[in-house]
Structures are given as structure tokens and as C-alpha cells.
Specification:
Blueprint lengths: L3 H5 L16 E10 L12 H15 L3 E2 L3 E7 L5 H9 L5 H6 L4 E5 L4 E5 L5 E8 L3 H16 L6 E2 L3 E2 L11 E8 L1 H5 L3 H10 L2 E4 L12 E6 L7 H47 L5 H16 L8 H10 L2 H8 L5 H23 L3
Antiparallel strand pairs: 1-6, 1-9, 2-3, 3-4, 4-5, 5-6, 7-8, 9-11, 10-11
Function: Catalyzes the specific phosphorylation of arginine residues in proteins.
GO cellular component, one term: extracellular space
Catalytic activity: L-arginyl-[protein] + ATP = N(omega)-phospho-L-arginyl-[protein] + ADP + H(+)
């Protein structure tokens, strides 16, 4: 398998699939933090130890097939160009921390990109499983099975009272972060998100932007995840998160119904104005593109727009990010150059989709 696949294809194969409640829940993710005994944590380990850990995973897991996800390939951060690392971040396959601050970091990626095993990030191992739609239970099952498979080859740092030991105390215990990516445009338009976010935080969960901590909720996409990892089982953490997410799904659907009943023509006008901007603009920045894509996706979900597949919006949300634009251009672009290329790419992609949907 060629490494170029990871950098040149915007949508991972799992992302092109429909999942439960995928009109609102874009993806479900389980991430497990683990460390290996006999090595100091990444905050303190030597360069030699870091290289030994990468070598261990390269020799043990690289090029091996794992169930239906395909073969694992090892990508070393030191061998990637800055643009290539940015693309992996934009696809949610690695964290910004691994891309920017881990000179001895690496990543094992499955062929379908459903599984990502980050090496030498904040911990020795960050196991990540991604599923389309609202499938937290399924993602947890897959992550636990993968965790068991890895543990057949390495010994984890574990304490009988505390659980899994991690670099950051907030991850001690299960070492698990469960999260869902949600598209919540109606709750934003009805100005309910401002009160929902503090309420969710009080339940021991956190609401973040598209790329996690410190990022902006571009295109009305929010990441909801657990904060507590100690004192509860993985199953209980997932059930608590599922309960809150289900409430958010219900509230988003109610808000959409309210908008259709009370502001139908204004909402339809907003959707088609945004589509017009995407289909005709010659210059567009990432923030405006994300907002217009959010409006159009909402229009597809509500039945206003019938000739565009919802998956095209998934693709364009990633394809129009700075890393991908520069990857396609073959080099670094100034912000104004990216804005021109972004507009051209969106115009052409929408034309292609229209031709396909119309049988052309």
C-alpha cells in the first residue's frame, strides 16, 4: 500500500459509510492512552528510549493485517513534510501535538483509516478507533479488542488501585477518551448552544471545537467527550456520554423542526444562498466555506437540496482545509492563494457531483 493514499484522499473509507443518526452525529471515537513498563513516560524519556519504542512497534505491527481494517503502515513524523502532517491532523488521524511536538513520534494507520495508533505522543501509545455515525459502543468494543491484541506483545504500566498509568493525571484510570463529532446548526441558529455547553460541562463532559482542545467549532461541528477517566468503568463512561448525546440529537431535531415551522422560507433562502456562494465564489476563506458547507448539509438533511449527496459535504469539509489545499498544489501557498484554490476546488467538485446525481 502506498503512503500517498493517506495524504491524497480526503475521505477515509469509513467516512463514506452511513452510520446511525449520521445526519447529526458525524463520527464516534474511542481513544485509549497506554504506556509500556520499563520505559520512562514521554515527558521524561530519552531520545534512545523513544526510538526503541518506535522500533518495537515497527517490528511487531507494521505491515501486519488486522481483521477487516486491513494492513497497518507505520509513518514516522520525522520523515513527513509539514504539509503531510497537517493533512493527517485535518483527517483526525493524528493529534496536533503528535504533528508539532513529537520529533520521535510515529503513527500506525490501518488501511481503511478506521484505526490509528499514535506512538510517543503524550503517552507511549494512543489507540484510536473511529466509526461513522453514533456508534460509541461498537467503537469501544473494537478499541478493547485491539488493546488486547497489542497487550499480547507488550506489558502495560498498570496499578491495581489506580488503573492504567499515564503522563497526565487526568487520563489515569481507564485512560479512555470517548467522543462524538456532532453537526448542530439548528441549536446554533436558535442560540441554544450558549446554554447547552455549560450544562454539558457540569455533567463531567466537555464540548470542544472540530479539532479538539483549543480549536474552533467550524461549520457548527462540535466534539463532545468525557473528562473523567478515574473511578468509573469504560462502559459507564460510554453510557453517560451516550445519554447526553442522545439528548443533544433530540434537541437538534426539535430545533430543526421549529426552524422549518417558523422560518421555513428564511431557512430555505439561507441554504440556497450558501449553495450559491459555494457554487460561484472565486475567493473564499476556510471559515466562510465551513459555514456555507454547514448550511448546505442542513439543507440536504431537511430535503431542500436533493441533487447533492451528504457525503460530498464530508469530503469538502476536509478537502478545503489548508493542509489538503497545499498538498494538492504541491507546495506552500499564501493564505490568499489558498482562498482562490479553495473556491475553485469547491466549484468543480459541486459540478462533478451534480453531473453524477443527474446521470451525466
Amino acid at each position: 500500500m502506498s503512503f500517498e493514499k493517506f495524504f491524497n484522499t480526503a475521505v477515509s473509507s469509513w467516512m463514506s459509510q452511513e452510520g446511525p443518526d449520521s445526519d447529526i452525529v458525524l463520527s464516534s471515537r474511542i481513544r485509549l492512552a497506554r504506556n509500556i513498563v520499563d520505559f520512562r513516560f514521554p515527558t521524561l524519556f530519552s531520545n534512545e528510549e523513544a526510538q526503541q519504542i518506535v522500533s518495537l512497534f515497527e517490528q511487531t505491527f507494521a505491515h501486519r493485517f488486522y481483521r477487516s481494517v486491513g494492513r497497518f503502515e507505520l509513518l514516522k513524523m520525522s520523515e513527513l513534510q509539514p504539509i503531510e502532517k497537517r493533512v493527517l491532523v485535518e483527517k483526525h488521524l493524528i493529534s496536533p501535538h503528535l504533528a508539532e511536538d513529537s520529533p520521535f513520534g510515529a503513527c500506525l494507520l490501518s488501511e481503511n483509516e478506521e484505526i490509528s495508533i499514535m506512538i510517543n505522543e503524550e503517552d507511549h501509545i494512543r489507540i484510536q478507533c473511529l466509526f461513522p455515525g453514533f456508534q460509541l459502543t461498537e467503537a469501544l468494543k473494537a478499541a478493547n479488542e485491539l488493546d488486547d491484541w497489542i497487550e499480547e506483545h507488550v506489558i502495560y504500566a498498570f496499578d491495581e488501585k489506580l488503573g492504567y498509568l499515564t503522563s497526565c493525571p487526568t487520563n489515569v484510570g481507564t485512560g479512555m477518551r470517548a467522543s462524538v463529532m456532532m453537526h448542530l446548526p439548528a441549536l446554533v441558529l436558535t442560540q441554544q448552544m450558549n446554554r447547552i455547553i455549560p450544562a454539558v460541562n457540569q455533567l463531567g463532559l466537555v464540548v470542544r471545537g472540530t479539532y479538539g482542545e483549543g480549536s474552533e467549532a467550524l461549520g457548527n461541528i462540535f466534539q463532545i467527550s468525557n473528562q473523567m477517566t478515574l473511578g468509573k468503568s469504560e462502559e459507564d463512561i460510554v453510557e453517560d456520554l451516550k445519554s447526553v448525546v442522545q439528548q443533544l440529537i433530540t434537541q437538534e431535531r426539535m430545533a430543526r423542526e421549529t426552524l422549518v415551522k417558523t422560518l421555513n422560507i428564511q431557512l430555505e433562502d439561507r441554504v440556497f444562498r450558501s449553495y450559491g456562494i459555494l457554487a460561484n465564489s472565486r475567493v473564499i476563506d476556510s471559515k466562510e466555506a465551513a459555514q456555507c458547507l454547514s448550511d448546505v448539509r442542513l439543507g440536504i438533511d431537511l430535503g431542500y437540496i436533493k441533487n447533492i449527496s451528504r457525503n460530498i459535504l464530508n469530503e469538502l469539509m476536509i478537502l478545503t482545509q489548508p493542509g489538503f489545499l497545499q498538498q494538492y498544489a504541491g507546495g506552500v501557498l499564501r493564505p490568499e492563494e489558498r482562498d482562490v484554490r479553495r473556491a475553485a476546488l469547491i466549484r468543480e467538485r459541486l459540478k462533478m457531483e451534480e453531473r453524477k446525481m443527474n446521470g451525466g
